[in-house]
């Protein structure tokens, strides 16, 4: 590594990225390439001789950028966003620059101690119960994804339970979520060896806003208990992926407590909003949970990847995930006075993720982070208002944060009141066509969900560069496509 060459090439790459952001609105938001396109553009094998950074960047421009869906475009309203920021980016640079592997304290004390500190700062910002703070005998750890966080907590819950009831009862353990819980729960269930037949996705309905019903949960658990099964783990969601539904945390934790279960709260997207006092009430009841996670890479201006997990009993994680390798033995670990994060996660190696979070928190401060979140919510409200003003459309579920779920309504297509199943299907198809047309235009990118059999378009505001003018243009694009589609199909 030649430091002068590094400096020169580093500046070129930064300039390249700055230009990318400057021109980002010129690209179609959703990539238009066909599967296999890249194979046709690049050589079949790695170069034998070195190539210059200029040549490589030219290929990035010509061949990689066309194959990107531009998540950082201000016209990106799909999925949940992955918020970029200068501080998050610079934090990543520092992480990669140092390239330390902080699996235990001694392998890079600053990596462990900063993570410890930042997790307590964030726990304060979210007003998590004292029991989740290190000072309250709990603690936080950074993972790459919610999926990893759930696998680890479920493994901890499994081992805690099996130590009580005997490992021969593994096949009796049952995991609960709702039909809106992220698929990550089912994946975790499979990974930790729970019988796939013992996974319960409890049905939700529009009447409860697609939130988990505590009564249905109790009924399902007691029916399992009657069959001799053992309730193990509940994943409650604060801000579901499809519609940002909010499971009633206090009530579902109370049910779970009656059966001695572990409750994990997944707030992957919406957790970030809870740094604003007006949204904090959505996690009221979290004190009844055993663990809580959210992804700052979704909505807290921290570059991919970053998931914060807190547990009220780190020993449960450590008992389940510890390894004791001779070559990692050291005095600090032997004293048990330090955190060795390798025992809080799946892998041994780990990135210094705390550095980017620390940069984000320090560079913007809580005040600005709240301001950014509120600005996204405000833009989403504007979109919601525009939808409501057009009587061809309807808002399908109430908006909680910065996601608006909407669609062309049945009444815009069918004039009489006697709708049958066929007409419901037709409305779904028309909305599906609408989404395809909007995305094909390249001017915006939105995605969909199907909830309670209803196809909805999701407009998720969250890209860092999105301003009010972008959402107004996005609405015009939706209206334009809707006009064309409806003109062709009114019955
Ligand atoms: N949970 C919720 C509620 C989500 O919305 C998502 C992704 O959007 C996930 C979990 C998946 O998170 P990850 O990709 O970090 O595993």
How many angstroms separate the termini?
Answer: 68 Å
Bound molecules: pyridoxal-5'-phosphate
Unreliable stretches covering 5 or more consecutive residues:
none
CATH level 4 superfamily of the largest domain: Type I PLP-dependent aspartate aminotransferase-like (Major domain)
The fold-level CATH name of the largest domain is Aspartate Aminotransferase, domain 2
Derived structural class: alpha/beta
* N-to-C order of helices and strands: HHHEHHEHEHEHEHEHEHEHHHEEHEEH
Domains counted in the coordinates: how many? 3
Query: Which percent range fits the helix content?
Result: 40-55%
The CATH architecture name of the largest domain reads: 3-Layer(aba) Sandwich
Largest sheet: 7 strands, mixed
Total DSSP helices: 16
Radius of gyration: 24 Å
Shape label: globular
- Beta fraction of the residues? 5-15%
**Spatial order of strands in the largest sheet:** 2-8-7-6-5-3-4
The CATH top-level class label of the largest domain: Alpha Beta
Number of strands: 12
- Average pLDDT rating: 96
């Amino acid at each position: 590594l030649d430091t002068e060459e590094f400096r020169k090439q580093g500046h070129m790459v930064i300039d390249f990225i700055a230009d990318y952001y400057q021109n980002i609105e010129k690209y179609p938001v959703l990539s238009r390439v066909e599967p296999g396109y890249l194979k046709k553009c690049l050589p079949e094998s790695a170069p034998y001789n070195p190539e210059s950074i200029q040549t490589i960047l030219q290929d990035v421009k010509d061949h990689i950028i066309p194959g990107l869906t531009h998540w950082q475009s201000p016209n990106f309203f799909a999925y949940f966003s992955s918020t970029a920021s200068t501080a998050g980016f610079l934090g990543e640079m520092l992480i990669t620059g140092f390239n330390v592997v902080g699996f235990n304290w001694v392998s890079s004390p600053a990596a462990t101690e900063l993570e410890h500190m930042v997790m307590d700062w964030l726990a304060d910002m979210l007003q998590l119960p004292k029991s989740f703070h290190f000072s309250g005998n709990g603690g936080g750890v950074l993972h790459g994804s919610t999926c990893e966080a759930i696998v680890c907590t479920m493994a901890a819950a499994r081992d805690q339970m099996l130590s009580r009831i005997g490992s021969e009862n593994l096949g009796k353990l049952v995991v609960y979520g709702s039909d809106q819980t992220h698929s990550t729960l089912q994946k975790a269930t499979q990974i930790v060896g729970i019988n796939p037949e013992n996974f319960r996705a409890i049905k939700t309905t529009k009447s409860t806003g697609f939130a988990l019903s505590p009564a249905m949960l109790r009924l399902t658990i007691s029916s399992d208990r009657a069959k001799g099964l053992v309730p193990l783990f509940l994943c409650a969601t604060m801000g579901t992926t499809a519609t940002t539904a909010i499971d009633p945390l206090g009530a579902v934790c109370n049910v779970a407590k009656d059966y001695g279960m572990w409750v994990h709260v997944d707030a992957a997207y919406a957790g970030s909003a809870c740094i604003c006092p007006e949204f904090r009430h959505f996690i009221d009841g979290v004190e009844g949970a055993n663990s809580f996670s959210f992804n700052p890479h979704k909505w807290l201006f921290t570059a991919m990847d970053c998931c914060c997990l807190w547990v009220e009993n780190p020993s449960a994680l450590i008992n389940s995930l510890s390894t004791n390798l001779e070559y990692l033995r050291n005095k600090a670990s032997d004293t048990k006075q330090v955190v060795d994060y390798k025992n809080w996660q799946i892998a041994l190696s780990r990135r210094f993720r705390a550095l980017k979070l620390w940069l984000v928190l320090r560079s913007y401060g809580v005040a600005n982070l709240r301001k950014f979140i509120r600005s996204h919510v405000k833009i989403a409200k504007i979109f919601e208002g525009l939808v409501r003003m057009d009587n061809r459309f309807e808002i399908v579920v109430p908006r909680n944060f910065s996601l608006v779920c909407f669609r062309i309504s049945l009444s815009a297509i069918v004039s009489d009141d006697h709708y049958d199943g066929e007409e419901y299907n037709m409305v779904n198809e028309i909305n599906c066509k609408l989404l395809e047309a909007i995305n094909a235009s390249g001017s915006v990118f939105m995605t969909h969900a199907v909830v309670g059999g209803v196809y909805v378009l999701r407009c998720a505001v969250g890209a860092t560069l999105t301003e009010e003018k972008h959402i107004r243009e996005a609405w015009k694009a939706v209206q334009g496509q809707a006009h064309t589609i409806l003109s062709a199909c009114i019955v």
